[in-house]
């Protein structure tokens, strides 16, 4: 569970950086009298809006996905988890779209924006979790080999 919380924090920061990069307007292209959000503001918005989604939906769904795919190893397990994380991200994105538009937004063009964000966030989280878990296992193996205590 500690790995998942660390992955949530890292994925949230990375998502903020990606959003800033997507919304960045170079100085030469900026209009006079128009306010442009800075890096800190965009990262704060991502923490406010994506953070609860990661905590309230992402962690439980991640726990379920990992629990039921633990017996699948190697490349087939990776692609199975990738597909399940993608489906979970699309479902959470659709839920955000329903909350934002106050209706099922199947015909609203903005639904694709929320679906894309949910997909991006879930796949980013799954890969960050993969790296954090791998690093955690590697550190545990080093501690066992050196005879240190596992905290």
Automatic annotation (TrEMBL):
Keywords: Membrane, Transmembrane, Transmembrane helix
Membrane-crossing residue ranges in chain numbering: 5-22, 34-57, 78-99, 111-135
Protein name: Uncharacterized protein
Biological source species: Halobacillus andaensis
């Amino acid at each position: 569970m500690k790995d998942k919380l660390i992955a949530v924090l890292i994925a949230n920061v990375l998502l903020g950086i990606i959003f800033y990069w997507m919304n960045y307007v170079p100085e030469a292209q900026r209009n006079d009298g128009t306010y442009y959000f800075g890096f800190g503001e965009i990262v704060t918005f991502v923490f406010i809006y994506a953070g609860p989604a990661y905590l309230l939906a992402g962690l439980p769904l991640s726990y379920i996905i990992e629990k039921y795919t633990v017996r699948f190893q190697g490349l087939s397990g990776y692609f199975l988890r990738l597909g399940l994380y993608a489906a979970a991200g699309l479902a959470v994105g659709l839920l955000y779209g329903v909350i934002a538009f106050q209706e099922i937004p199947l015909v609203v063009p903005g639904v694709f924006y929320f679906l894309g964000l949910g997909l991006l966030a879930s796949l980013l989280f799954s890969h960050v979790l993969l790296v954090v878990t791998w690093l955690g296992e590697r550190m545990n193996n080093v501690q066992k080999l050196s005879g240190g205590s596992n905290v």
